[in-house]
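Re: folding output
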Amino acid sequence: MGHGEETGIIPRFCEELFSRVELLKSKEMVKINVEISFFEIYNEKIHDLLASVKEKSAKKPSLKVREHPVLGPYVEGLSTYVVNSFEDVEGWITLGNKNRATACTGMNDKSSRSHSVFTIVLTQSKTERIEGTDHEHCTNSKINLVDLAGSERQSQAQTTGERLREGANINKSLMALGKVISLLSEQSVTNKKRKIFIPYRDSVLTWLLKESLGGNSKTAMIATISPANHHVEETLSTLRYPFIIDFLYCHIFK
């Protein structure tokens, strides 16, 4: 999620996206609209990272998760913004990162205390003339770029009070994510016709990522690990997630 001189994966992805959008516009008669939103999951509560807060000490309002019968889970009342360039996106990412919950722990002087989800909705519309009549075709794509907070042990992170509670909620949601991924992979490997109950609602994170993990989608994960010997257990635990995701089977259709 880094920016500036330490550009992270999400800004790099957005920069590449807009370069391809401009290329597509120049080659084909197509209109492209890009909208973004940015929120965090902090202690199982959702906060809009792009919402304006007048006072820095003011408490962030919590948003609720709803489920659409066709589109799946969504965050009610989440602000969305139209962006026309990578510079627009970069500005919103900078604002969102400033509003994100971070704190100093024994393992990291600026530890993320929440998971964040940066969503891009891309709409392509193209007009074709068929037998003298114009027909407009629209294609919608949704991309969820998720920055997961790292799992931590209390003995190493040296957390107490509120930091300890934050760490417990982070670990709980990561365990729920691991369980959902394992069951989806098991369903893919054993028998695609046999339905297994997937406990998406065990955490806010897995509920909101329901369509990204088991719906009409493709899922990819990048694991960030430490080379230090004393972090070997955390490293092995982290590597388990992308290994299992590799077995996920998703049926993609338009």
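--- second protein (sequence, then structure) ---
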Amino acid sequence: QAGFDARTPLSIDQDPTQFTRPLQRDFKGARIGWLGDLNGYLPTEPGVMDLCGNALRNFATIGCTVEEVQPDFAPERLWRTWLTLRGFLLAGIAGPLYANEKTRALLKPEAVWEIESGLKLTGADVWRASADRSAWYQALNTLFQKFDFLVLPSAQVFPFDATQDWPKSIAGQTMDTYHRWMEVAIGGTLAGVPTIAVPAGFSPAGLPMGLQILGPTQQDLAVLQMACAWEQASGYTQRRSPLLG
């Protein structure tokens, strides 16, 4: 958002002063693609999908149309791609800590598992994941030919007790890794498209939930403008959880 810099080839080649201006914009006629839980693939805590589904009405208030849609890309393939690239990255970053017996003893079991998984990868594994990442980007790009924004929940579970390290299961489905419970968040990151989280309200217990809004490549300003319009239409940022009194 600071403008183009040749040292960072993916930086936005746009006037950076646009981000200093008011974000108000008319979104009448904008098209929203609702990805939901990826056609039942993502397990979610009871209440998450109902809350997010009800929150979608705020797009209509803004003047948008909402349509359910699914990308032409298997969700499990997306997960394998992300898991491979993450393991490869962490093996490189934290490999020296793992190689040293003293520092390895300080690593939590999940970190050791992920580093070891990354060290086992072959060049072919990483190449395949890289190719799949490109294919995932193209799948989203195809959807952006029809939709201005794509939306899905920001989380699969409501906030949990701080003494719990991570959810071991969701809706009766066992989480096979320590980060599978937040699988819903990998799509925008892996594609490299601008993504923002906005509030979607509270559960009956007063726990917050949100929505992710994904925009086309380099449409960062449009995503910020949509988030601004959403906050003004929904009023969620002005509400307090009953838990806070």
